[in-house]
């Protein structure tokens, strides 16, 4: 194993990561953030890597990334990103991962790290926290509508003459308050999403049917606005509601446990199926109003069964809840959130537990 120059490591630490001691700076070599016994000395970052994937090379739990980097809360929300060509080093003595760019070896096998510019935000080449292709559609489309969010939205009142359903470049006539927007997505109200605990409807799953762009605003209060269809994914027509096209979100978050105890439940599996596996999308019954935030990692559990004591049939015994996977929260609404299933040993089912890591 190669040795690290103290000065070089400090230089890379300050110039490369800009990390200050904080709430996430304490790391132990054992417990939930333990390093793998066969962890490599280094990993060369390549295109297609993710923070989660790199962390999995070194750590028992990949979501422990912020702890072993010594990142504080603010840096988790606005991290300094990693790029292809850089090297992640395992500083075994400190129990930390370090970032640097190799410039050759010094005497006695010492690795020299060159300083590099601190980068704010996500550059075009920076690696993301998790596989971006899995969640991209869920960042650009609302998909979840809360509190009758579509009820007062602008809607299509008529279509181009001779058409029943609209296609690309067709005209649609819209009534409603556009609130200054010019680019919209069209939705239909889908099935209600019910809280598995209370049975209460907490949101609706909206069905994306297409996109439209304003071509001509109505000249009087009762004249319809004219839109041209950019995309027609499903049957797009009269009655469909319009929502302003959201700004593209930057994936500038890293995995970290919640600041507080979370005990949520799986509400639904995207696509209307009963079970889900790795890299599929689910919703949980907590969101921003419950202090859940983007980047939170939750552990998945299945309720332990209650069985009769074999030696005393009159007494019931509850078996422990079974931990079987990990969920990454990547988009939040008021009372519901989207999560990407990262690792599972079993299928995810509606009603399963999603709670803070122990």
TrEMBL record:
Keywords: Signal. Residues 41-90 form the LysM domain. It holds the Pfam family LysM. Residues 1-25 form the signal peptide. InterPro entries: Bact_Kbp (IPR052196), LysM (IPR018392), LysM_dom_sf (IPR036779). This is LysM domain-containing protein. It comes from Glaciimonas immobilis.
């Amino acid at each position: 194993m190669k040795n690290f120059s103290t000065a070089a490591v400090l230089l890379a630490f300050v110039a490369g990561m800009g990390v200050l001691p904080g709430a996430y700076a304490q790391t132990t070599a054992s417990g939930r953030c333990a390093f793998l016994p066969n962890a490599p000395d280094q990993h060369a970052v390549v295109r297609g890597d993710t923070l989660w994937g790199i962390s999995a090379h070194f750590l028992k739990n990949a979501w422990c990334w912020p702890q072993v980097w010594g990142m504080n809360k603010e840096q988790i929300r606005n991290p300094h990103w990693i790029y292809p060509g850089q090297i992640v080093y395992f500083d075994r003595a400190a129990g930390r991962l370090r970032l640097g760019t190799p410039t050759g070896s010094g005497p006695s096998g010492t690795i020299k790290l060159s300083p590099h510019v601190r980068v704010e935000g996500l550059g075009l080449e920076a690696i993301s926290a998790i596989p971006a292709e899995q969640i991209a559609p869920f960042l650009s489309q609302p998909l979840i509508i809360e509190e009758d969010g579509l009820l007062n939205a602008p809607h299509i009142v008529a279509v181009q003459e001779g058409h029943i359903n609209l296609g690309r470049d067709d005209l649609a006539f819209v009534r409603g308050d556009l609130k200054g927007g010019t680019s919209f997505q069209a939705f239909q109200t889908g099935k209600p999403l019910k809280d598995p605990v209370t049975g209460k409807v907490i949101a609706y799953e909206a069905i994306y049917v297409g996109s439209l762009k304003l071509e001509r605003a109505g000249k009087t209060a009762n004249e319809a606005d004219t839109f041209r269809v950019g995309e027609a994914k499903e049957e797009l027509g009269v009655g469909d509601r319009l929502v302003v096209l959201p700004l593209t979100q930057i994936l500038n978050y890293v995995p970290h446990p919640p600041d507080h105890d979370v005990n949520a439940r799986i509400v639904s599996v995207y696509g209307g199926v009963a079970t889900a596996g790795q890299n599929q999308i689910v919703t949980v019954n907590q969101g921003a109003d419950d202090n859940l935030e983007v980047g939170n990692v939750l552990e998945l559990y299945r309720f332990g069964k209650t069985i009769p004591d074999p030696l005393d049939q009159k007494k019931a015994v509850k078996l422990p809840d079974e931990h079987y996977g990990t969920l990454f929260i990547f988009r939040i609404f008021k009372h519901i959130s989207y999560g990407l299933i990262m690792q599972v040993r079993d299928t995810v089912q509606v009603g399963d537990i999603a709670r803070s890591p122990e």
